[in-house]
């Protein structure tokens, strides 16, 4: 698999080495971004409309505006400019660079769009013979003890708090407080005892 020469970034087609994305992009700082990968076979997009529908649903959940660009044209241009016969078009739509690092950000999040093409054999031995796999627990959204840049839940919590006239939010799961939007929660009981969550993967 190899990245082809032409990419698309915020309204312009350019050489891959010329594409530059701000380190203040909310996709980088908060993981507030969505992506779709569409297969290309014989220079034709496979199931593009379902990908676009899912992208629209994901962006709505992330409170990012749907891009105004014609994304079908962007994909077709990348196929043409890269002479892509078989492979993948990767599309990333982030909440963009909206100023300084701020959890809530502005009311309207104008998207930043990046797309590139990969040459990859889709129909071959792997499709015919299958691949080896392992099984393991799905820990997505459960590792609160890991301080990663995947802060989209916290960002959305701050935005909801601001709309409600509050400063932050207290998060809970199954009726139990987990943490604040970007801080630990400490509770003083009526008898003066200090209570917080136990140290665990669910911290």
How are the secondary structure elements laid out?
Layout: E1 2-9, E2 12-15, H1 26-30, E3 33-41, E4 44-45, H2 48-61, H3 71-81, E5 86-94, E6 112-119, H4 125-129, H5 152-163, E7 170-173, E8 176-180, E9 187-188, E10 194-195
Antiparallel strand pairs: 1-2, 1-6, 3-4, 3-5, 5-6, 7-8, 9-10
Secondary structure tally, helices: 5
Distance separating the two termini = 39 Å
State the order of secondary-structure elements, H for helix, E for strand. Answer: EEHEEHHEEHHEEEE
Q: Tell me the strand order in the biggest sheet.
A: 2-1-6-5-3-4
Mean pLDDT: 91
**Mind telling me the C-alpha Rg?**
21 Å
What structural class do helix, strand and pairing data support?
alpha+beta
- Low-pLDDT residue spans: none
Q: How many E-type strands?
A: 10
Largest sheet: 6 strands, antiparallel
Portion in helices: 10-25%
Strand content: 25-35%
Shape call: globular
- The CATH class of the domain at 2-123 turns out to be Alpha Beta
Q: At the fourth CATH level, what is the homologous superfamily of the domain at 2-123?
A: Aminotransferase class 4, branched-chain amino acid transferase, N-terminal domain
Query: What is the CATH architecture term of the domain at 2-123?
Result: 2-Layer Sandwich
Describe the structure.
The longest helix has 14 residues, at 48-61. By secondary structure, the chain is of the alpha+beta class. Helices cover 23% and strands 26% of the residues. It is globular. The protein has helices at 26-30, 48-61, 71-81, 125-129, 152-163, and strands at 2-9, 12-15, 33-41, 44-45, 86-94, 112-119, 170-173, 176-180, 187-188, 194-195. It is built from 5 helices and 10 strands; from the N terminus they run E-E-H-E-E-H-H-E-E-H-H-E-E-E-E.
């Amino acid at each position: 698999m190899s990245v082809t020469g032409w990419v698309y970034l915020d309204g312009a087609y350019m050489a891959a080495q010329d594409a530059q994305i701000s380190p203040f992009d909310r996709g980088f700082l908060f993981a507030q971004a969505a992506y779709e990968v569409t297969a290309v076979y014989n220079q034709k997009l496979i199931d593009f409309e379902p990908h676009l529908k899912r992208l629209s649903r994901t962006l709505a959940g992330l409170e990012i505006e749907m891009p105004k660009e014609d994304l079908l044209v962007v994909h077709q241009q990348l196929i043409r400019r890269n002479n892509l016969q078989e492979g993948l078009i990767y599309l990333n739509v982030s909440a963009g660079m909206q100023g300084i690092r701020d959890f809530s950000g502005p009311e309207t999040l104008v998207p930043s769009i990046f797309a590139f093409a990969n040459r990859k054999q889709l129909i071959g031995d792997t499709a015919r013979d299958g691949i080896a796999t392992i099984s393991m627990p799905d820990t997505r959204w459960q590792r609160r003890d890991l301080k990663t840049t995947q802060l989209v839940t916290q960002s959305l919590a701050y935005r909801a708090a601001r709309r409600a006239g509050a400063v932050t939010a207290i998060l809970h799961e199954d009726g139990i407080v987990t943490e604040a939007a970007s801080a630990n929660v400490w509770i003083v009981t009526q008898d003066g005892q200090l209570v917080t969550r136990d140290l665990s993967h669910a911290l």
